[in-house]
Amino acid sequence: MPEGKQEYNITVYTENQIGLLNRIAIIFTRRKINIDSLNTSPSEIESIHRFNIVINETEDVVRKLARQIEKQVEVLKVYYHTNADIIWQEMALYKVPADIIAEKASVERLLRENGARAVVIRKDYIVFETTGHREETDNLINVLQPFGLIEFVRSARIAIIKDSDGFNRKLREFEKREPGEDVIENEYLNQGDKVFTM
Amino acid sequence: MEVAQQDVLTAPEEQTVTQVSGSVALLEALLVEGVDTIFGYPGGAIMPIYDALYDYKEKLNHILVRHEQGGIHAGQGYARSSGKVGVVFATSGPGATNLVTGLADAQIDSTPLVCITGQVFAHLLGTDAFQETDVINITTPVTKWNYQVTDANEIPEAIAKAFYIASTGRPGPVLIDITKNAQIQKFDFKGYTPCKHIRSYRPKPIVRAQFVEQAAQVINEAKKPFILWGQGVLLGSAEQEFKTFVEKSGIPAAWTILGAGAIPTDHPQNVGMLGMHGNYGPNVLTNDCDVLIAIGMRFDDRVTGRLDKYAKQAKIIHLDIDPAEIDKNVQTHVAVWGDCKETLPMLTELVEAKQHTEWLAKFNEFTHQEEEAVINAELNPESGEMTMGEVVEQLNHLTNGDAVIVTDVGQHQMVGCRYAKFNNTRSNITSGGLGTMGFALPAAIGAKFGAQDKTVVAIIGDGGFQMTLQELGTIMQSGVDVKILILNNRFLGMVRQWQELFNERRYSFVDIQSPDFVQVAKGYGIAGKCIKEREELQSSLKEMLDHKGSYLLEVFVTKENNVFPMVPQGCSVSEIRLK
């Protein structure tokens, strides 16, 4: 891994606008930066979407990317954090043949140890679900592989920012015609005390 | 139609609801936005808009261009000379893709444009219909904002947002793609209200006095401060505020090519042009100053040269409206975010009135060296073939620096920007960031429409002219008065210069042949003349300027002249070469 690079979690609050995903994605692709994980879904506020983007880069690059994203007309706010600054989860689904599970009691124990829950139980297959960090969901793949894992899928990462007051209050400020002082927190550049302040 | 137009013009409070087509709503919106000129080219998917335009001929001056690229460059020229938003119409598919170069150019040079493209019927989207292209996705990287309208009801709001976004904050190009059904569709038009606020869009950051104070303190403590200014001063209409700041602080100031003209060329504190082919002093002394004050400029690589050897000794103060520009290329010590129209007066208030006489004299010493080594021979050659510089110098004598100079890209561009005299703001129009050959001719057409009282001279090389010479047809038909000055060195000169200096004179495909430009112009009914002798230069330039209507003057200049000084690529600004 090149020096100074680490995983960064970029959180983007946006309007719900067709084409905005592309507008954000090309900011990365233009610089030949791979997006490791991308989740986009409605936020707790109606009509506002939240992106969680994971990339492996230096902070300098991430800061510049964040500013370019925030510059887009329909982007309300961008934050970026290292893994230490967030609580994050990925969800995984595993489809395994039902007969093997039924025959081998050890499998059930393995699943329990890995915190998996059965989501669907059918005669021919069972679908289990786990949530956790990448290593945890990876680990269960290895566990289930010898027992005829049929299909596997993992979601993008979602993350909660440890040190944040949420976005509700900020959004109300955005909606005012004249933005309030603390809305413009990105103006502090790197002098802000909060870790997510750009 | 007549009745409908009358009704929609009524004041919004009366809330007259009228059934109009999307096309009529678009044109009504343009009128409210103060649009007087449109550069465009019709086609299948934009026909309903053109049909509506037939009834608006008296109010909206539509200039029929010869190629959509010409249309958008004309829109850029118009925007740059007038300070207003340039408006461009094009059809779907190839019409829209032909806009892409101009959009990229406008995006990198922060030029406000609203481009309207026709699109196939909404029900045909994604079916590979005739002249269907995914215009929104093609143009996303080269627009500040774009939007596809598929329902006429969206038109007023989309157009209002387009003008607001294009013209506010750091300006830029906006594209609205309107499907044919939306152009035809009748809807309840409740009048047009310009946009003043978008929740997610903050055109300019709030100015924080604490950073202005910090900047002022650094400036007041400086022994050798140096101002670099860019187009931000023009875009913010802050020329007067800038001049006051420069004059009170007494600090020498140098310009990027897009910043030229914010203060006159002859201003005693204007020490010249920055960058690869800029002046000697500003480049060398960038690495000698103790405080660098960058105003509305973005530290382009052509300005900075090698970054790790750029002004490392200096404290950097950066005034910019775009937060993404701060620390992008050069690490700032004090960042003053905001519109320089607001920040400059605050800074002027706090800086001490000074005269940096000795420091300024140092710039003048370098100017003297540059004159000896380069400028005198370029501007006043005693023998041999004509040089580009002397043509520009003779032009200066005749225009007195009051003309709008539009340049294309290459050697003549650098010579034009270096030597043309600019008394006024918005009088240097060139493709700076993108370096688009073929820009000048159409941009000059637009520039003239944007500044009708000015003489507009397009200085173009023999290569660039052949990229968009079809726009002579636009000149012919519109009757616009543009003076075309072709500096013909029978080479793609700038590439040839690099091949000479860095590729051991291996002249790879730079030997370009040209048609008889005067005959070509004649074919379009444009008067012209070609000269090869110095004796004819001044009288011919005068003839060009005095001619009623457009005129093409082709001047044969020396073939293998190089533009100096030059900061070779990968070198520091202080390693600038005089030869």
Please explain how this structure is put together.
The complex is a heterodimer of chains A (198) and B (579). In chain A, 29% of the residues lie in helices and 34% in strands. Chain A is α+β, with helices and mostly antiparallel strands. Chain A has 2 domains: 6-85 and 162-191, Alpha-Beta Plaits (2-Layer Sandwich); 87-154, ACT-like. Chain A, domain 2 (Alpha-Beta Plaits, 2-Layer Sandwich), CATH 3.30.70. In chain A, the strands form 2 sheets. In chain A, strands 5, 6, 7, 8 and 9 form a 5-stranded antiparallel sheet that branches. In chain A, strands 2-3-1-4 form a 4-stranded antiparallel sheet, covered by helices on one side. In chain A, a hairpin with a 3-residue loop joins strand 6 (117-121) and strand 7 (125-132). The longest helix of chain A has 13 residues, at 59-71. The two termini of chain A are 25 Å apart. Chain B has a 6-stranded parallel sheet with strand order 3-2-4-5-7-6, sandwiched between helices. Chain B has a 6-stranded parallel sheet with strand order 11-10-9-12-13-14, sandwiched between helices. In chain B, strands 16-15-17-18-20-19 form a 6-stranded parallel sheet, with helices on both faces. Helix content of chain B is 38%, strand content 17%. The termini of chain B are far apart. Chain B folds into 3 domains: 2-189, Rossmann fold (3-Layer(aba) Sandwich); 209-362, Rossmann fold (3-Layer(aba) Sandwich), CATH 3.40.50.1220; 385-557, Rossmann fold (3-Layer(aba) Sandwich). Chain B is an alpha/beta fold and 579 residues long. The A-B interface holds A 14-15, 18-19, 22-23, 26, 30, 63-64, 67-68, 70-71, 73-76, 174-175, 177, 179, 181, 183-184, 186-187, 189 and B 136-137, 140-141, 144-148, 165, 196-202, 205-206, 208, 322-324, 326-328, 335, 337.
